[in-house]
Design goal:
Strand 9 and strand 10 form a beta hairpin. A four-stranded mixed beta sheet has the order 1-4-5-8. The chain has a four-stranded antiparallel beta sheet with strand order 2-3-7-6, with no helix packed on it. The protein has 391 residues and is an alpha+beta fold. The protein has 13 helices and ten strands. Helix 10 runs antiparallel to helix 11 and helix 11 runs antiparallel to helix 13. It is 47% helix and 14% strand. It binds flavin-adenine dinucleotide (FAD). Flavin-adenine dinucleotide (FAD) binds next to strand 1 and helix 13.
Length: 391
């Protein structure tokens, strides 16, 4: 019997929740276990979720999307994870287009957004991180050199997830060397890279095997030409353009962690009621109850922060602090719930057929990506508490 985690009277997105749940029921644990074993992309799941229109939630209706608020998109991602599925294969199709929507030209929006909304074009690769710069985005080296009516891109990205399964990439590259830029975040520009064309002219993708099935990759640019019309907004302002999108990304990923936490807690409480050892259900022992109760409280508190961050985002109010806190708290809550779930299941927590070890590996990522906990704490210390910058 599932725990009533979402009292209907305060959840404005019950219909979406029910719809996503129904769709996800077609993709049970066995489906995800097979993909995990084969390190394969969940093409059928992504096709179904696209066809149902969920990935176009944030695209305005005039461009063929459903024009829903971020809180609705967060509900979609949460419910996918709560059902035991993994939204990482496609979540970026929801939010990467935000940079285009907010800063692209009318021509770019008309050209790309309807095709992204229908799923005909996949814009789900986000090329920011590089091997030598890590979290220090202002030190990226990938360079876009202007030549007449196009740019020529050289450099390397790492951890570009879904690169093999995307038609377009939102690429951050330097257009002015760091030492000549007025501020360290100046001189970075954002491009829409057509990866289908680029693969024919200098772009190489090399997959990286990871702890969980994530379809991530290294990407090499060897003088890849990009038409100048694919520059988003003004040259040199790219860092500012990706920042607002990063808040949306953090809130949606936090929602996924809330979904993971609910999945772990449902599994663990069901098992704790059924599993009898020493002639009594293990759930009768407070040593089993307390970690679950604590993780539940942690999840609920994190969920409130996710809701708050989404509400601020939807009201166009700066939500940098809340989006970061939501991501950090939700990732910690899902990890605590995962840990309690493994412990509750004893040896069976390690058996692949229970899916717990798979979800445990999947949810661990979110304390590192898309931004690691230390960097969130630094952000809060400096920008909210006014402490001196530490790096
Ligand atoms: C599976 C996966 C998928 C990803 N997908 C994408 C993607 O699609 N696109 C993309 O652009 N990137 C992606 N990333 C990259 C991700 O955003 C980075 O891994 C993350 O931001 C951390 O950067 P890093 O790995 O370079 O760590 P580093 O920057 O090398 O940091 C290593 C450790 O040191 C800590 N650290 C660094 N500096 C400080 C400091 N000043 N104070 C305190 N601690 C510090 C960090 O918190 C971290 O724990 C992905 C990563 C993974 C693992």
């Amino acid at each position: 019997m599932p725990i009533d985690f979402d009292p209907e009277d305060i959840d404005p997105h019950q219909e979406i929740r029910a719809g996503v749940r129904k769709l996800c029921a077609q993709f049970p644990g066995e489906y995800w276990r097979r993909l995990d074993r084969e390190a394969a992309y969940p093409a059928e799941f992504v096709k179904a979720i696209t066809a149902a229109g969920y990935l176009a939630a944030l695209i305005p209706e005039e461009y063929g999307g459903s024009g829903l608020p971020l809180s609705a998109a967060a509900t979609i991602m949460e419910e996918i994870h709560r059902a035991g599925c993994n939204g990482a294969a496609c979540h970026a199709q929801m939010y990467i287009m935000g940079a285009l929507l907010r800063h692209g030209s009318d021509d770019q929006k008309r050209k790309y957004l309807p095709a992204i909304a229908s799923g005909q074009l996949r814009l789900q690769a986000f090329g920011v991180t590089e091997p030598t710069s890590g979290t220090d985005t202002s030190s990226i080296k990938t360079f876009a050199r202007r030549e007449n009516d196009h740019y020529v891109i050289s450099g390397q990205k790492i951890w570009t997830s879904r690169a093999e399964h995307s038609d377009l990439m939102l690429l951050l590259a330097r257009t002015t060397p760091k030492h000549t830029a007025a501020k360290r975040v100046d001189g970075l520009s954002v491009f829409i890279l057509d990866m289908r064309a680029a693969r024919e002219s200098g772009l190489t993708i090399r997959p990286i095997r990871t702890m969980m099935n994530h379809s991530t990759a290294e990407v090499f640019f060897d003088n890849v030409p990009v038409p100048a019309e694919n520059l988003v907004g003004e040259e040199g302002n790219g860092f500012r353009y990706i920042l607002s999108g990063m808040n949306a990304e953090r809130i949606l990923i936090a929602a996924e962690c809330i979904g993971d936490a609910k999945w772990f807690l449902e599994r663990a409480t069901d098992y704790a009621k059924e599993r009898v050892v020493f002639d009594r259900p293990i759930g009768k022992n407070q040593g089993i109850q307390f970690p679950l109760a604590k993780a539940y409280a942690q999840m609920r508190a994190a969920e409130l922060m996710v809701q708050k961050a989404a509400a601020l985002f939807d009201s166009d109010i700066n939500c940098g602090a809340e989006a970061n806190m939501a991501k950090m708290l939700a990732a910690e809550a899902s990890w605590a719930a995962g840990e309690a779930c493994v412990q509750t299941h004893g040896g069976f927590g390690f058996a692949a057929e229970y899916d717990i070890e798979r979800k445990f590996r999947e949810t661990r990522l979110y304390q590192v990506a898309p931004i690691s906990t230390n960097l969130i704490l630094s952000f809060l210390a400096e920008h909210v508490l006014g402490l001196p910058r530490s790096y």
